[in-house]
Amino acid sequence: MLDEKLMERVLEILFIRFAAQPFSIEQLEGQATAYCPAAELVYGLHLLRRAGLVNTMSRGWGEPLYALSLQAYFEIQQKSFLLLEADQSRNERLQGHVKLLKEAKRGLAHDLLRVLSGIAKGALPLTAKGRVQQRALSKFTGLFSLSDEDLGGLQLSYPEQDDYPPAAAVLLDMALALGLTRKDEQAWAVNEHELIRWLRSDEALREGLLMAELLERYVPANPFLQHLVCALLHPAFLPGKWGSIEGILRQLRAKRIQLDSPLAGQRQEADRQETSPIGSWLLSWLKALCGFGWLELGYADEQGRGIPEALAAVLAAGNNGLDDEKPLKEREREQGQDLGFPLAGLMIRWLRKPDLKAVFCRRMAETQSGRQGALAGFEGEAATSASIGTSDGTSEGTGVRTDARCGLGNPHEAAFFVQPDYEVLVPPNTPYTIRWELELCCELISADVMTTYRLTRESVERAAENGRKAGEVLAFLERHALTGVPDAVSLAVREWGEQRKHTSLFHATLLHCADERTADRIAAEPAAEGALERIGSCHFIVSANERMPVVQMLEQLGVTLYNPLEEAAAANGVLYPRVSPALSGSGTRGSEASKDRNEAVQAPQAWIYAGKPVRIQKADASIPNLEELFPGLRRIPAAWTSEVRTYHASTVKLMLQQALEWKAGVELRLNNGTFTAVPRWIKGSGDWRVGAELAPKDNSKAEEGNSKEGKGNSKAGEGEGFHAGTYTELIPADIEGIRILLPAER
Question: Cα(first)–Cα(last) distance of the chain, in Å?
Fold first, then answer.
């Protein structure tokens, strides 16, 4: 019971003062007060670690860091943050008076799909020195809607910043962090197994994973900023409804969350942070969320005066006006605004609001199963059979949000419209597994609410080069077309396929046998039918999609191959990945052997960190015992910690010195009552004095005394752990009784 109360008190302090930002033991001890001494803070921290509410993190050197888990943060936020009634009423009143400032784009997940498809088709080759080819990069940036202007003002830093523009870097960073791609020697490449799992996941998980990455790595090391951006996700902000940014700030003030940060000394590039107003960064974040397709930005022009000049100037500037700081601040002062830009009237409207619950469930499953990586545990997610050329189109689940109007309850049923002019119209809820194949066999025309592709001779030929014959493309279209495939389109696809058959130059895998006897054994195997084409006494051509099954068959026959897995992996990397009904099974590229190799390719790693890059260490359920937290505890008299007693002045001094060394509190009986205290210093020998922060043992009296006398300063927050108490100096004659307070005994 005592431990639970201490955990609640420390949890509140961590939430208010650090949000979900990493902090050190020293920074935590800096929050100590007479109500919650440093020793109790540290002990409570370890209790929270054991409960799984606080993560242990590492910078790769020095002491570990700690951070409130994002899940714990949001649970506390949603319980303690309530939009003020006045703000709720005002939001309702302003719904019809909002002018749109910035629209939402197609979406970060959609852009990421395009990027991964482009990489799978070889869109990002590298030079011999490992640099990206600029001509290819120019075409690559045309694949997605996110622009560099959407990210202006976020102050992103990442490797090879001169080579990759911000928008491309953000999308590659997301792909790296989720384990979807890697940078090989010759080109960027997709990690097939992770890619398939991502494509088969449902929308809620895809969107939630992306938002979690942004919250954990793109927000500077400033708790106030993290409180701000996380408050945008509060349930009070409903999708489709305009909500006021001012309401968020009023709620933070009501919770006494201040702009000052205990992590100020830990910020990356602190000098730059001080010249970048908090408000300007927040506006940059909102513009980025528009670019990521999640929300719209508006201005409540209730008086009909138009958009303020300062806000219009900041929105128009690609860098949010940071290079024109003085004129901007002058405009702010004229309008009486704070935080770096005019917040009054700024509104947001969520279109697609990421739900982090799916992410937290995944992470919990990952922890329990011991899996590593952002996408661990996806096997239970949607398994769709959308790949061109798959056999029966059956699967065990979809995980796709259904839409009765579009007929998308089953991803193997109709999913798009094929028009007589070769256009393919794709409704918004079409599964990504189907979109993945459309990215290969069609050309993208436009991406809005309805995405438009077009079938062309070149796109069908590209599909054939990646193992999809014209007949397979046509079968895929017929299986998923809502109103069928027009005859003219079917005929054209067949003709394009026939024309390709006439004369062809293609890559092939040749199986060479040591002798004719071995070749005969292989040819006699049932699994060889359709997978191998014999072209001589000792040679076979291996079908493009059957490399791994052939390798497995040869292993079962006891035929030794030279580096079979490495060769097969290299060959497999050439083709555009298929999304198969399951991640294992013969005849698919998602075999278990391929899965194991792809998982071992590279652990997920990110590019972009707005704060200091840290990594979460393996969970440690152990907490230090009292002897470890308080060295020498067994050598002191038990009475020192068990009850308040009267001692000689020299013993009182020893006890205070011991409390100072342990950073523990003491309980003092003075002539005007009993107090908890935190010693700050001791001076003198015979006639010594001690400086201490006092808090009455009765907390209600403490709050009453602070309110009447104004002596007790209060740190940000509402609980008793935030009251700083009253500073005083004592001499030995003042102290009538004392004991040292240990966390487990309070």
Answer: 11
* Cα separations in angstroms, 437 against 434, 579, 677: 5, 8, 68
Q: Considering the chain, what percentage of its residues have pLDDT values greater than 70?
A: 73
Contact assessment for residue 639 and residue 740, using Cβ atoms and an 8 Å cutoff:
no
Return the higher-pLDDT residue of 374 and 323. 374
**Which residue stretches of 442-591 are H helix?**
457-465, 470-480, 487-502, 516-523, 547-557, 564-572
- The distance from CA 507 to its chain's CA centroid, rounded to whole angstroms, is 40
pLDDT at site 142: 92
DSSP annotation of 445 reads: E
Please write down the HEC assignment for all residues of 642-708: HCCECCCHHHHHHHHHHHHHHCCEEEEEECCEEEEEEEEEEECCCCCEEEEEEEECCHHHHHHHHHH
Confidence of residue 188 (pLDDT cuts 50, 70, 90): very high
pLDDT at position 617 is 65
Query: Are 43 and 688 spatial neighbours (Cβ–Cβ below 8 Å)?
Result: no
Angle of CA points 86, 92, 93, to nearest 5°: 85
**Proportion of the chain in helix, strand, coil states, percent, rounded to 5:** 45, 15, 40
Strands of the 417-418 sheet, one edge to the other: 417-418, 423-426, 451-454, 443-447
Sorted by sequence, the CB contacts under 8 Å of residue 86 that are 6+ apart come out as none
Tell me the pLDDT tens digit for each residue of 147-169: 999 998 888 888 888 999 999 99
